[in-house]
Structures are given as structure tokens and as C-alpha cells.
Amino acid sequence: MKFKLTAREKSELFGEGIVTIILLLLLNIATFVVLDQLIASNPELENGIFQIKMSLSFGPNNIRIWSWGWLFGVILLIGDGAFIYWRLIRRYRQMQLRHIIAELHYIADGHFDHRIPFQISGQMQKVVSSVNALVDSTIKAMEDEREIERSKDELITNVSHDIRTPLTSIIGYLGLIENKQYHSEEDILKYTHTAYLKSREMKVLVDDLFEYTKVQQVDAPLQLTRLNVCQMLEQIAAGFELEAQNRQIQLTVDVPKEPLYMEADGEKLARVFNNLITNAFKYGTGAKNIYLTLRQSSPEEIKITVANDGKPIPKEALEHVFERFYRAESSRSRATGGTGLGLAIAQGIVQLHHGFIYVTSNEKLTSFIINLPVKHQEK
């Protein structure tokens, strides 16, 4: 809406104008009287003015087109008008600024959803727009900070939960041994083996957590090398052949015949594909095939797809799969052996390479699609 003065402010502005006019009128009269007396007391000045008058007269009766009083009055009138306009505009701008300050105080009192609502013509509108933009950015920063704090609390809660479960088992079984609550050496071996497996679970979680915190740092260093992506994908797939055979899953690699090179951190990028293939094995229920496909989508970009033909991911879960500790299944059971960090780590590594990853899922295929730049450029 347009900026409007209150009735009180309009009266104040009108009074300002009246007072200014009266003061200027008194000043003009005083100036006029002083100049008139000055001219009358100086014959040379009066004669000079007379000669100028005669030179600007015309006709048989020497009609004059001006007098010094008239000319002086016109000059004063123009000057007075300019001064009155400047003073009233100055006062008007002060009133606008007073409204802006009042709006800022209102926002500062905790009304963070409020913005300066009025439109002002001229340069003052830039101030209003800047203030609103500053408030927006400040509120967003506060919301981001709260989200970070909430996220940190959630991370601590999830880590505590996931570590406490195997740790409780380890303490329990070692406690049985410590208190000699066993009947045979076979029982001891059983308890120690279970404690060993639980400790390995904890190590996997800690390793994944450490990796996740590293890839979340935007300035995390990358060991860049020139990679043959075709060769790397074939080697990664070869490492999963035995597991694929045991699960009766066909792992298919489809890459171009010609070598395809890119600048990347080979170790970190291999972690991405290992996580995605492992994820397909664990969560692609009923899958008979896993497809690893590489294509060059443009001279500057490649696209890699890891897909499986297992049970699709529910639609409501698709937008959450890259969140840390998220699992599509409702329970937090570790029957599948996952930490819930694999996809979050994969996303973090892809982002470090200035690429992006997304997922699609339907009855035919669940596909994780990665787009990566061929040449790494620092941003």
C-alpha cells in the first residue's frame, strides 16, 4: 500500500508551511525596506538603476517594462517557493523515516513475521526494500541456526540410540563371563563371539559417522586425479560378484566402449558406488537385477545410474532417503545391518564434487541417478 500521513502529521506539515510562509514574508519585507533605503541613500546607485530602466523603456511615453521593486519581488517569490518546497519535503521525509523506525521497533519487539507494508516514492523506497530484505535474511539465518541446533540434537539422539544397543549387548555378555555365569567353554566362546559382532557394529557406525561429518564440510579436501570412470565402475562391480551370486542377483555393468575420464577423488567416489550397490542389495527386496550404467550426458557432464528391480520405495519416503539415519522401513531394526548414513554420505561426496544425486522409484526400477562434472572446478 502507498504511504499515508496521519491526520496529526498532515496538520503538523500544514502548520510548518504556514509558519515558514509568515517568517519568509517578514524577512522579505525587512529585506525590501533595507534595500529601498540603501538605494535612496546612494544617488549613484539610484542613477544607475534609472539608466537601466530607461534603456529598457520603449514607446513615445517611455513605457517601462519593469521596476526594481517588481523584479526583486519576483526573485524573492521564486526563492521563497523553492525554500518552502525544500523545507516541507524535508519534513515529509523525516515523517517517513519516523514511520520506518516505528515499524522496525515493532519487528524488533518479536513480530518477526511483520514487514514494512507501505510503498514510498523516490530513494526512500530503497531503504524500505533493504530493511525488509535484511529482516528476511536475519529471520532465515535464525531459522537455519535453530534447524542446525535441532539437527545436532537429533544426531546426538540417534547416535546414542544406535551405539547404546550393541554396547548394552557387549556389556551384558562380557558381564556373564566376568561373573562366571557360564556352564562351559562353548558358552564363553558364544558370548565373546556375540560381543565381537556387536563391537564390529559399533565400529561400522562410528566409521560411517566420521565419514559423514567429513563430507558435510564444504571445504573438505579432495585428492583429485584423472579417473577412467568405465574402468572404476567395472572394478567396483567385480568386487560385488560373489555377494551377487550368493543372493542370486545379476549385476550388470553398461559403460561406453571408449574410456571416459573425469577429475575426481577416486577413493571417495568409489565409496558412493559401494554405498549405492550395498543399499540395493540390502533394501532392494525381491530384486533379481542390479544395473550399473554410465553415460556422457554432455561434453561437460556424465550421468551414472545404479538401479535395481526390487520392491519400490514408497512415495512418501522418496524425499527422505538421503536424510541421515533415515530408513524406509518403519522400525529402526538392524536386521539389514545398515547405519542409515550410507545415502547421506553418498550425497555429501557427490556435492563435494559439485554434482547432484536423486532417486526415482516405480514398479519396474528404483534408480539412483548421479550427475557429475567431467572437470572439477572450485566454487
Automatic annotation (TrEMBL):
In terms of Gene3D superfamilies, this protein maps to: 1.10.287.130, Histidine kinase-like ATPase, C-terminal domain
The record's keywords, sorted A to Z, are:
ATP-binding, Cell membrane, Kinase, Membrane, Nucleotide-binding, Phosphoprotein, Transferase, Transmembrane, Transmembrane helix, Two-component regulatory system
SUPFAM superfamilies referenced in this protein's UniProt entry, alphabetically: ATPase domain of HSP90 chaperone/DNA topoisomerase II/histidine kinase, Homodimeric domain of signal transducing histidine kinase
SMART domains for the chain? HATPase_c, HisKA
- Tell me where it mainly resides: membrane
Where do the HAMP domain residues begin and end? 91-143
**What EC number(s) are associated with this protein in UniProt?**
2.7.13.3
Pfam families noted in UniProt: HATPase_c, HisKA
Topology in the lipid bilayer is annotated as:
Multi-pass membrane protein
Entry's localization field: Cell membrane
Record's signal peptide: none
One GO MF term: ATP binding
Q: Which residues form the Histidine kinase domain?
A: 158-376
Q: Which CDD domains match?
A: HATPase, HisKA
List GO terms (cellular component aspect): plasma membrane
Q: Where are the transmembrane segments?
A: 12-35, 65-88
Q: What catalytic activity is recorded?
A: ATP + protein L-histidine = ADP + protein N-phospho-L-histidine
- The superkingdom of the source organism is Bacteria
Q: Please state what the protein is called.
A: histidine kinase
